[in-house]
Amino acid sequence: MNEHREKYELEEKPTPFLNAWYQWRWPAVFVTLAVLAVMVTHSTIEGNWQKLFESPRNVQTFFRESLWPPDWSVLEPQAYPVCEEPKLLEFTCSTAWIGVLETLKIAFIATVFGMFISYPIALLAAENLSPAWISYPARTFLAAFRSLPSILWALLFVIMVGLGPMAGIMAMTIYTVGYLGKLQYEAIEGVAKPQLDASRAMGHGWLERSFGVILPESANNLISQAIFMFEYNFRHGTVIGIVGAGGIGYYINLYLDFLQYDKVFAYVIVIFIVVLILDFVSKVTRSLFKDDMTKKMHPFWTVLLPSSWVQRFDEE
Amino acid sequence: MYLAEHDVVVGQDLSVGYEKHNPLITNINFEFKEGQIIAINGASGIGKTTLLRTLAGLLNPVKGGVSVFGSSTIRRGEVGYIPQRLGLIRHASVYHNVMLGAKAGHTSAWFPFSSICKPVSLQAIESVGLTHKLRTPIRKLSGGQQRRVAVARTLAQKPRLILADEFLAELDEETLIMVMKKVLDYVKQNNAIMVLVEHDLNRARQMADRLFTAEGNKLVEIFNEEDEVHE
Q1: Which of A92, A97, A261, B83 could form a disulfide with A66 if both were Cys (CB 3.0 to 4.6 A apart)?
Q2: Quick one: closest CA in A to B139, which residue?
Q3: Yes or no, beta carbons of A202 and B109 under 8 Å apart
């Protein structure tokens, strides 16, 4: 009884200490975290802060002497094989075009194959469709595919099948299965209960429920995820080329080895432009498959903004 | 021995709920016969939907047993369930949704294809007056039209037991009478059993042969047409 009264009194009349704690607890937590991070950094870099303060000057020198101006010869046709395209389309014989196209192809094939392979596994992994003894092994299987980054898969496949886009396709497909599979089983688990209840009561089998109920009900999500995955695969496809798995990364690596950073910078700008275009196309396409079709479209230039800023357009 | 003959739905000492130690409805006994329409009325949260889900085989009884046409497990196509939120596939067409019912009722799980499914589905869609919306996705239909699709799905399935959770809500008077008549005719003509949860007591009384009300943890029968006729 006394205990209860004390608690009650405490809640009614907080002490100055408690008052201060309630007011400052979140700033205190953040300050503590920041101090901790600085301390860990200090011990990791062995107190050599000088390096950090010198870095802007280094970047400036590197940019002025090695990167700028970018060498746009990467957009000119290669010396060999001889380009037979008309003058206006000569850029299609350039290494930048060939590299980007190859990376796009790798990303597309990997996304399509990955999608078809991951869907059956995602069905097995979804807890609302399969019992725990099936769903947990299936999840572990997908997690195993995801646990290695695509560049390491690429390295493994380069060893297995040799240099070239085939290794890239296989690496990206494996990674897509792991990543897309997770997104898919989460989408499947998001299917509302009444739909599944009605199907179960009617006596549908597992296959009928998976392809007749779950697939159409989550189709918008699945398509939207596949488009996102394609965009993601393109961005990562530029990296896997560095280990010899084809695509634009191959040329980047080549010029990095020759220390021709101005050419590398030109490739980076090309990739940036393609990613912007892809981001925009993906955004427009995904908006066609949204559940809430009444949501208005954003202007194209919003792809450059963080999504939290874009949401403000909706609120206004 | 399990309880019953092949033409009745029986509950014996049945307790339903989600927690073993805290069932919503306890120790009820009932026997629903072919051709009967049974309405269940009662306050929200008292366990009416839970009882329907137990009859549909979606929940195990907390205690006691249910026998649907002589079996404790539900056989394919035997039960047509219209949940409160209808359970329609929002991105699929009216035809696809009704076909799911037809397939459950007229095919086996191992080979869910039959030439009879298409005419049966089209007939069911026509009977609820939605032929002009055949290819329209469910999400583009009004609440009332969606309810009609759910009814068509059940009619196409031709189940022996229909479980409907407030399936007449949101319908305008004219459509309500039409849908009600379709379902009642189906039950009487096919000697099926229908158990429905209905909040509107007058409507429940008008439709049902037997009326139960959920009070506390019990299900009390407050009206039985058979008894009235005998009296």
Answers
A1: A261
A2: A291
A3: no
